[in-house]
Amino acid sequence: MAPQLPALTLEELSDELGSRTRALALLHWLHAQPTLPRELPARIDGLSHRAWKTLREKTVWAPPLHVAEQQSVDGTTKFALRFGDETVETVRIPAKGRDTVCISSQSGCTRRCAFCATQTLGFRRHLTAAEMLFQFMVARGRNVVFMGMGEPMDNLDEVLRAVNVLTQSPAPQLKAQSVTVSTSGVLPGMLRFLSESKASLALSLNATTDETRAQLMPHTKTWPIQALLQALRDDAKVNPRREHFIEYVLFAGVNDTDADADRLAGLLQGVPSRLNLIPHNPFPGSPYRPPTDERVEQFHARMREHRILSLVRWPRGREIAAACGQLALRATAAA
Ligand code: SAH
Known about the structure:
Elements: H1 10-17, H2 20-31, H3 49-58, E1 65-71, E2 77-83, E3 86-93, E4 100-102, E5 106-108, E6 123-126, H4 129-139, E7 143-146, H5 156-166, E8 179-183, H6 187-196, E9 200-204, H7 210-216, H8 225-238, E10 244-250, H9 258-267, E11 273-279, H10 293-305, E12 310-312, H11 330-334
Parallel strand pairs: 4-7, 7-8, 8-9, 9-10, 10-11, 11-12
Antiparallel strand pairs: 1-2, 2-3, 3-4, 5-6
Helix pairs in contact: 1-2, 4-5, 6-8, 9-10
This protein binds S-adenosyl-L-homocysteine (SAH).
The site of S-adenosyl-L-homocysteine (SAH) has 17 residues, from strand 8 and strand 10.
């Protein structure tokens, strides 16, 4: 299959165009477009006509169709984008000049977390690196999180390529520490990601015992909590400046007790990370409920007493189903 233009690296473009200067000009042009053209122009400044024509003929340019766009009262925007046969959701979360783009890596998901709306879609297909990059080019931001639909570690070749292109010069040139890839805890993929990428990892821990974790995330019971956290500790020896995230979704009566908070603090000893506490975002059919705001605050306070660097991620975009774990094309189907 012909390669997709947005997923080519600077080196690959330099080879194809026969010059690094032309490749730089093309990348500048590509990432400066305010809206994605449906078709590529016949000429681009800084590129010889012939080299550009050859590259255009050899590669595919297939930007998504905008199926829907919704904005929540807090400014969060959810895009429904159609790539050929599949529609996926991408979210932009605004923050004073440093917007975060939340990218989907699969249509549906290969994993089956009991508390996540995306799993109700089943697994449809992996997205290509170009499809991930197009999501970024539509939503635009200075930070990227791979926390939309899908399990990135199950589509790692494409995710690594997308991260590579996102962080390359001259554009879009995101900082490696501004790109975070989130995983439900697929250990072999995590180890490969940590050795091959400079970006950050977010581990969705969500429980403090392997029993509770197996109920919430049955597909990851192969890998015990301790083994997942050890991977982050080991990485700290090789990359002492890299910081990771631990995601902990709070469910009423499941993982939100003081005993959980104490166990969590114990587990995180020596793990160089920031903890994000995420009250469960409910969706129709979810068997779980979020704790009360007061309980969330108490859990947070207890983590602070244990001197664990932590933040509560109060939901953004919940009423348009754009918050964590709510991406399931519901609003899109109605649109
Ligand atoms: N598969 C990856 C990335 C997608 S999920 C992963 O599991 O990390 C992104 C984040 O949303 C994860 O931390 C996950 O635990 C969280 N999440 C999933 N469903 C949720 C829900 N209903 N409410 C709150 N957070 C949820």
